[in-house]
Amino acid sequence: MDLIKLRSQNLLMEANNVEITNDVNINLTAFLNKKSYSSIALLCDENTYEHCLPLIIDSLPEHWLIQIESGEENKNIDTCQQIWQAFTEGSFDRNSLLINLGGGVIGDMGGFAASTYKRGIDFINIPTTLLAQVDASVGGKLGIDFMGFKNHIGLFNEPEVIIIDSIFFDTLLPVEVRSGFAEVIKHGLIADQNYWESISDFELKNADWSEIVKQSVEIKKNVVKQDPFESGLRKILNFGHTIGHGIESTYLDHPNGRLLHGEAIAKGMICEAFLSTKKTGLSKHDLDLISNYLLKVFGHEKIDETLFENIIQLIYQDKKNTGKVINSSLLQAIGKCAVNIPIGEPDIIDSLFYYNSLAEHS
Amino acid sequence: MDLIKLRSQNLLMEANNVEITNDVNINLTAFLNKKSYSSIALLCDENTYEHCLPLIIDSLPEHWLIQIESGEENKNIDTCQQIWQAFTEGSFDRNSLLINLGGGVIGDMGGFAASTYKRGIDFINIPTTLLAQVDASVGGKLGIDFMGFKNHIGLFNEPEVIIIDSIFFDTLLPVEVRSGFAEVIKHGLIADQNYWESISDFELKNADWSEIVKQSVEIKKNVVKQDPFESGLRKILNFGHTIGHGIESTYLDHPNGRLLHGEAIAKGMICEAFLSTKKTGLSKHDLDLISNYLLKVFGHEKIDETLFENIIQLIYQDKKNTGKVINSSLLQAIGKCAVNIPIGEPDIIDSLFYYNSLAEHS
Chain A residue with minimal CA distance to B115? Predict the structure, then answer.
């Protein structure tokens, strides 16, 4: 237990490394001026290469460019090996830096590759999507997918700094912004009723993103500070993700195409809000509020019943579960979440049918 | 800097996890009785499966057996993926345990695989070679080889416990015991003149291994405690390894066959003792003592001159070097080592010629 405490302090100190700015170039330059790296690499994908790199290129000293293919399907050990190979070919020593410019895939995988190259070099994150800014960039979870399981291989480590600027949102499609917004909604639902109320009645396209990102990052930082290694409280961040991840993974290979993370999590949150009324006392009134709002934002696409079995199987392999019990995080009320609530296969099936029934009646 | 301090305390606390015993079964049973793991796997190779597993099998509860092919050439990302795959197929959750039964390859790679599966499960080491007992098992360095570079991908993490029993030495070939003995000699040379004197006049086959292992582990633990992340003092453990690793890696693909780690390190220590007389004041008398003793134990095999260029190249890629400077750890006297001594390509060439000249005159 003492060990855990020390490790927590360590991550806790690092939780102050998030900088929300109106000019990413000022913060990036200030960071680089403080340090003296022997080599610098920048990791991007074809999208951030085209749309985001030009926005910071003038602040970058000489660097190696590592470009990978975008998409969750490339967040795997093969791509990770390409990154290690680039470091090796550039003769990167331990005093090198990796700059991750992109969404969650770039940040998670780049952070993992940097943390394991020569037992760890520095890295910084410049998250370019709403999802990465409010979720993936904070909390030290790094890794890659393996054998179809999301983030199956990874570790906990923190970037030297996370520089957040909403200027990058101009480079995103509206569905991508919406996908990140699912995590914003989640933050309100699990931890802050006022925040939920403030976001639940505005239009996405008119949002004040700096303010939203700031509040969401605050909520997530607060939770992670108190429980960096997910032994208890931090699990509230998994609300919507037990079933949502199962849905997301199932649709990875589906002929109708993949769901964006937030689209899957929105469905997961409806399912788990339904289970919250059965298990943790969420009122029917609040369930309706949550479901209606999520359907309004994310639309009403039914989940194919023939996939239910596959969803169940993937949920049983989730790394958050112990043995054969599925532990979920469920709402007691809007703004209040309980953790380690056991749910069974019939519960999950019921909740998926509930989701589909909403789509039917809408 | 505060961060580093906290991380050090963390590893420092864990440095008390070495148990030297006359009955591995008692310690293993005691450890397992204290814990309650949901799944247990044992990692071994064909040698430890045949010769070592029978010695502990009665103390093992139900477990998954993961057998990999022995040898440094299999300490790579492909084998690591086989281990992750076995965990996945066994539906291992975060409350699982990996038992590493074998030498340095098993301990380093098993520890890395466990530390990155679902962001880390517990592992324990039962090192079965002298080399692993006095060197690899202590100090938290885990990893795999990559693109021809030793331990190129990895991280720092500590096993829950390291159980050391010399009973396993009966399963080793004499050359394997001798290979581990190179690290024992190194411990004397870098940190303890009395220890050096006590080991430098006995016969390997009559050695009191428990006592030797105990003293060597003490020396290594002491060093690692003071500098877990190798920012200074810990580098003394690299004596003989700057040039030794270059030689070892070069011989990996050599038609005359590979060198065992200790055989390469013995050559490296002679080369670096020679450089110590040039750079850090080691006396000619002590150089002769060291060279003669190492040649007596490890024999006199010349290093092929056509490989010198390759050795140099590999040394330049060593993860311990910063930029274009080769930092070595050299002796000031027997029992006293200095770190961060810059050496150049001509120094290395000279030292290799020195080594070969000894072989010629012997």
Answer: A155
